[in-house]
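Q: Here's a chain of 414 amino acids. Please give me its 3D structure as tokens.
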Amino acid sequence: MVEVKYALDTFYFLVSGALVMWMAAGFAMLEAGLVRAKNTTEILTKNIALYSLSCIMFLLMGYQIMYGSPEGGWLPNFSFLLGDEHSAESIKAGNADHSLYSDFFFQVVFVATAMSIVSGAVAERMKLSAFLMFTVVLTGFIYPVEGYWKWGSGFLHTLGFNDFAGSAIVHMAGAAAALAGVILLGPRTGKYNQQGQAKGIPGANLPLATLGTFILWMGWFGFNGGSQLALSNIENANAVAKIFVNTNAAAAGGVIAVFLYTRLRYRVSDLTLILNGALAGLVAITAEPLTPSPWVATLIGGVGGLLCSVSITVLDKLKLDDPVGAISVHGVAGIFGVLVVPLTNEGATMTAQLIGLVCIFAWVFTTSFAVWWILKKVVGIRVSQEEEYVGMDKVDCGLEAYPEFTTVSGQNGR
């Protein structure tokens, strides 16, 4: 019976991890749909490269920093590579719930998700080489340290901070790193007029962005459901089922709330805001997808979507140019999700939730800002105005995503 339980929970971990890995495709499609045609190939290259680098860096050092460190501490150990797999004797003795490698696989796709959040926010004007250099540092060091504080049984875990599947640890952390980059990078050329008002820069492929959103929605069942960590008994099976329902309800709530918001405020149904409403709802419920009722989960998702929509407008007024709305979706909705956990989870306290948010944001934003600043001074992080005008596809990749269409560069003979 112990061996069957071990096998079933290991299999569930692997399937959940595969679903989360599929979210990498969702981010790639969403971002490719929301940027201009001349930057599509570059952002697709960025997404597959960041996923691969994340896997290598987490294998090399990130996993051991996050899970091989002392309980209750704030400073992790700096060890390298994975440990040995559980022995048959250890499994039969009941000392292991699932394969070590399945745990690694499930965790590595989470760190790739955090890095994907940064990708969209700095799109259309950042050097690909600088972005990938930052990826190495975030996935190998910055993310594992704050992940250790909670999921590795560090001081935030001891304090009682609750973040079931990573509204703060993954999503807000990715948004904090993105915000630091956006501040140092500056807005896209032409985003703001002489009066400082934001100008819309439509994405090239909204069907692709919609497909990406649905892929992310699907992958989120592995993201949240897999975070239950087990499926092999009645209690866990029921918990996973409820998590699936609540995750789906929150996304739906985000969509409907933002649909109504855009109809009332703009007299149109703004698809880009609606797509981000779905994602914001998913981010908001991620902090605690088990304890709310489905109707409360729907409400949490709806409020998360509305906050995201308002945040996108506010960031535009602050001249923080985020082409895909990643900072609002993952940062603002992530903070909201963490703060509402005590409303449904009696074991959570607002004090612990606030301390966790402050510590994670301060760590990720400060270290990310320092890394971005060093990269800016040493290698530069922004392409030239001429390169930005021509498009990142030709500058970084030498290949256009839509060669059969007339592009800006084609029109100007460049």
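Q: Can you summarize the key feature?
A: Confidence is low (pLDDT under 50) at residues 409-414.
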